[in-house]
Structures are given as C-alpha cells and as structure tokens.
Design brief:
This protein is α+β, with helices and mostly antiparallel strands and 614 residues long. The chain folds into three domains: 10-58, Roll (SH3 type barrels); 207-480, no CATH class; 481-613, no CATH class. The chain has 21 helices and eleven strands. Helix 6 (209-232) runs parallel beside helix 16 (453-466), helix 13 packs parallel to helix 16 and helix 13 packs parallel to helix 17 (469-476).
C-alpha cells in the first residue's frame, strides 16, 4: 500500500481536470482504496485528484538562479576551467539554445495568457452590457469596443502568424510531439477520471440509512393498507385509529392480479409503439446520452379510447372500486417482485451504470433506493416507463371508477360537484405531465436516483392508490358544496397549477438551451460546473417554486372533501413532508456541486418554498 504524501488540511496546488493549469486547493480527504485525494478549490468545488496531479506549493515558488549568486569573474573562471581551448564550445551552444527555448516558451506563455485575458475581458464587458440593457441602464459599448480593439491590435500580428502556422502546419517536430503528448495525457486523464468517477460510493445515506430503509420497506405497504381501510369505515376519524383488519385470504384474488398484469402489459404495448418523437436525455457520467420515445400523451389517448370501448360494451368499471384493496395488494406484490429483479440484474451492471445515490454497498439500502440508474431491456427503459405510464394513467382510471361508483351507490344521475372537482383537477395534472413528458428527463428521479423499491412502489402503488384517496373517500362520505365555494377552490387550484407549470417550464428550457434568445431576460449566477443558477422569474422568488405550486394544488384537491375528517388531508401533509425532504436533499446536493455559487444564490434568494416564511 503506497504511503500517503499529503495530509488533510494541507494547502497544495491541484491540477484542474482536462488542463495543464494548477490552482491552490486544500486537501479534505483521501480514499485508501482508489488512492485519490479529495480537494477543495477556492470557489467551493470539490474534486478527486490523483497524487500525480497534486504538487506542493514550494515547487511553484521562483528559485534564485546560480548566475545571480555568483560574480561574473567567478563564472568566467569556472567556464574557462571547464574546457580546453582546442575543444569546440558545445556546452555554450547548448546553453544558449536552451536559453532561447526558455525565452520562446516564456514569450508564448505570456502571449497565451494575454490572449485569454483579451477574450475574458471582452466576454465580461458583453455580459455587463446585456445586464445594463435589461435593467434599462446605458451601456458602455463604445468604451468596451475601444478597449477590445486596442488589445486586438496588440495581438493581431501574433495571431496572424499563429493562423498561418496552423494552416500550413509549419510547426517544428518538437512542438508537434509536445502537443501529441499533452493530448494523449489529457485523453488518458479524462478516461481514468470518468472511470473512477462513473460510480463513486454513496457516503451520505438518506432515509435513516440501512435501518430506516428497512423500516420503510415494511412501513409503506402498511400505510397504504391503513389509509384504504380507514376510508372504508363509516366514521374515519382519529378516534377509530385502528380499523378492523380483514382476513388475509380476502386481500388476494388471482383474477385481480391478472387484470393488473393485463393493464401493465397494455401500457407496455403503447410505450413500444413507433409513434412520437425520439429525444436524448441529459449526459450521463460517462458522457453518453440515452434516447427516449416521447409518446406518453398518445398512450393516454389510446387508453381513453380503450376505456370508452369497455364502457360501450357494458363493462362495469365499478369493479375497480369493489376490489380496490385487492388491486392495491396486487400492485404492491408486483412492485416487490420487480424490485427484486432490478436489484439482481444490477449486480451484473457495469460500474458506470450504477446510480450515484444507490451505490453504498449495503444490500437493503441499495435495494430500496435503486442500485442501477437506468435499467433497460433493449431500448425499453423500465424506470422511465414506470415513471409516467401504469401508475399515472391508472390514477385517472381509478378516479373515473370512483365517480361511477358514487353515482351507482347513491342512485345519482350526475356525480357530485365535489367529485367532479377532484376528478377535473387531478386529470389536468396528469394530462399536463404527459403533455410535457420531455421535462421529466431533467428531474432527479431520472438523472440521479436509481430504480429500486422506492420508485417502483411509488410509481405503481403509491401514486394510483394514495393520490386517488380523495375520490375514494367521497364515494363513502359525500360532501355537499355550493358553486361559490367550488369557484374559489377552482381559482386556488389554477394558481397552484400556474406556478407549478411556469416554474418547471423556465427550468427545463434553461437547462436544455441556456443560450436561447427567448430566455435572454433571465439572469443567472454562473458556476464552476458551467451551469447557471437562475435568479429571476419564479426561481428568484423562492428556491423551489415548483414545490410551492405542488402544495397549493394538493390543498385544492383536498378541500372538496370538507372538514369533517382529517383523512383526506393526509395527502397534503404527506406532500409537505415529502417536498421538505426533497428540498433538503436538493440543498445538500447543490451546495456540494456548486460550492460558493450556491451560497451566493441562497443569499440572493433566501426563502426555500414559502415566501417570507420558509
């Protein structure tokens, strides 16, 4: 085992990845397995570097040359003693040629540095003028153009000479060889770095670590069962906290499980249809981009046509309400089986395809959070498919079944106003998600989280059976509502929807193409990663405006259920807790990723979700 050279806390010079430039960094850690140092740059960026890419500060300090310390007479004496009068002055020629090479290298370095300053200066002034124009202030174009022209005239001869040399390849063989070595070294560094960084071990465990994730594997299915049993009671109050448990054999029906499988494979068929455009996702850690077919809205339309055909042929959709509990158990069993398959296949996945948040080395934790980032069977992306198709579209179908069950049980010719509001609000949410399907490719679920029990259970069980809780509640507990109250709730829902959609659209468009002229009005803080942090629009109002819109909509979905019981508001409470957890995770991730730029952003935008509150 090689000895460690640099200690924690030591200030050294670290090479910036992919370049030959060194910057002052502080050593913060060392990995005994990979033999990589974790260093922190002045802007807060943390990277892992090899020992060969780190140097002590003393190696960069100027040294006194021997010629300055000795007298001319002594130098001449030593030179005369070193060779006989009859020998050619080979050493002098070598010394003078080395001196010329050092001078040329120094001159070239100065020219390159000045050229970088020229480009940086001009870009900075252009950005300053754009900001002044946006704020309605007069710019300094004429002064900046003059400065740029002076610098351009100063370096124009050198640039012209360089252009001619590049055009006709009039470089010396030594210079070409040096370039080849630098290029080869850079490619090797990038390859090694991408391999080492493709799947770093997960150090910060969420959800209470191994014990917490084990408890959640048991707790989540029990929570779904508890909520559905509570809604079945005549009085679902907190006084009846423990509902009577049904017989175990009544929770499972093979026919119900078969219908669930038929639904899952029907959505798989719609997903595989060659309709809709194919787009690329964000770059992975190895630089590769996966392709996704965007046809979720088409799948929704085909599903609606299929349900319409079933209703036309007198299929009783209230069967879903009568066997709601059995469908939830079937979905939970299927998600558990899918999670086991996902974890077993992830053990054979390459290191660079593992999820950064689910590679801890602990079986239970990785099983829960997801070990593999993008598990695929050919071109069929399992995580992306489950994210929007079976559960989200199934949520709408279940809501429709609740609406028909309410009419059937209470002998109504029309559904209640409260049921119509719940169905309409949640239908809008689902249609919006499918219409803007491409935006999900930039979310943390796709780019960061692996596909394990957490997402499998959430997509296939939690979304369709917990998100439809309000509609399920209204079947057994109808609520009368006046039109003015319904109008006020509708306005509240559309306020939340507007915040949610406009904030997500701003973020998605900016991530896709920050240079889009349509986004020129947006201001941002640049970061060391090359990305920007928006400080205008909704993202200059609070740090997570999309979460604010989500919470407002969740409240609007629960208000039609009235205030007799707190059970319908479980979704609001859960949603607030979920988003606060996500917000805390985002804060930690962004602070580690963006460093000082994130601290500047937090000072600029102090409120996280709720303006002037939190």
């Amino acid at each position: 085992m090689p000895a460690r050279r640099f200690a924690d806390g030591e200030v050294v010079m670290g090479r910036w990845p992919g370049s030959i430039l060194y910057y002052e960094v502080q050593v913060t850690g060392y990995n005994d397995v990979t033999h990589l140092y974790t260093v922190k740059y002045k802007d807060g960026t943390e990277l892992e570097l090899k020992e060969s890419d780190i140097r002590s500060q003393s190696s960069f300090k100027p040294r006194k040359s021997q010629s300055s310390s000795s007298s001319p007479s002594r130098r001449n004496t030593s030179r005369s003693r070193s060779r006989s009068p009859g020998r050619p002055a080979r050493g002098r020629r070598r010394s003078s040629s080395q001196s010329r090479e050092r001078k040329e290298d120094k001159k070239k370095t100065v020219q390159e540095t000045d050229l970088i300053l020229l480009v940086t200066f001009c870009l900075f002034k252009m950005n300053e003028n754009n900001t002044r124009r946006y704020n309605g202030e007069p710019d300094s174009t004429e002064r900046n153009d003059t400065s740029c022209k002076i610098l351009e005239q100063k370096f124009k001869p050198d640039l012209e000479i360089q252009r001619v040399l590049d055009q006709y390849s009039l470089h010396s063989r030594k210079e070409e060889k040096k370039k080849e070595e630098l290029y080869s070294e850079k490619k090797i560094f990038e390859t090694v770095t991408s391999t080492e960084k493709a799947s770093p071990k997960t150090k910060d465990l969420e959800f209470g670590g191994r014990i917490g994730t084990f408890m959640m594997i048991l707790f989540l299915p029990a929570t779904v069962l508890f909520l559905l049993l509570m809604c079945k009671q005549d009085d679902p109050s907190l006084l009846n906290f423990l509902p009577p448990l049904p017989a175990l054999e009544s929770l499972w029906e093979t026919k119900v499980f078969g219908i669930f499988l038929l639904w899952f494979f029907l959505q798989t068929l719609f997903y595989l249809l060659p309709i809709g455009k194919v787009v690329e996702g964000l770059p992975l850690s190895n630089g590769r981009k996966l392709q996704y077919r965007i046809n979720g809205f088409y799948a929704f339309v085909l599903t609606a046509a299929s349900i319409g055909a079933l209703l036309y042929f007198q299929f009783d959709l209230t069967y879903l309400y009568d066997h709601f509990l059995q469908f939830a158990v079937s979905a939970a069993a299927f998600s558990m089986g899918l999670s086991i398959y996902l974890y077993v296949r992830s053990l054979r996945a390459p290191e660079e395809e593992l999820a950064p948040g689910g590679n801890s080395g602990y079986l239970v934790y990785d099983f829960f959070t997801g070990h593999e980032l993008n598990p695929r069977i050919g071109s069929f992306d399992l995580k992306y498919f489950c994210e929007l198709r079976p559960g989200l579209i199934g949520w709408v179908v279940l809501n429709l079944a609740m609406l028909l069950a309410e009419m059937k049980i209470h002998n109504q010719s029309m559904p209640s106003l409260a049921m119509v509001l719940v169905n309409s609000f949640q239908l809008l949410y689902v249609v919006d998600a499918l219409w803007n399907e491409e935006a999900v490719l930039t979310t943390m679920d796709i780019t960061h989280d692996g596909f394990g029990f957490m997402l499998a259970f959430g997509d296939l069980v939690w979304v369709p059976f917990v998100y439809s809780l309000q509609a399920f509640y209204l079947v057994g507990h109808p609520t009368a509502m006046s039109w003015p109250v319904a109008s006020a709730i509708t306005v509240l829902n559309f306020i939340g929807y507007y915040i949610f959609r406009s904030a997500n659209s701003q973020k998605n468009k900016f991530r896709r193409n920050p240079a889009d002229p349509k986004l020129a009005y947006l201001k941002f803080i640049p970061t060391a990663t090359g990305k920007g942090l928006l400080v205008t629009g909704w993202w200059g109002f609070v740090r997570h405006p999309n979460y604010l819109g989500d919470i407002i909509m969740a409240l609007a979905w629960s208000l039609p259920c009235g205030f007799n019981h707190i059970l319908p508001y479980f979704y609001v409470i859960y949603f607030i807790c979920l988003l606060i957890h996500r917000e805390a995770r985002d804060e930690h991730h962004c602070k580690k990723k963006y460093g000082l730029a994130w601290e500047r952003y937090c000072q600029r935008v102090p409120y996280r979700i709720f303006p002037y509150i939190y």
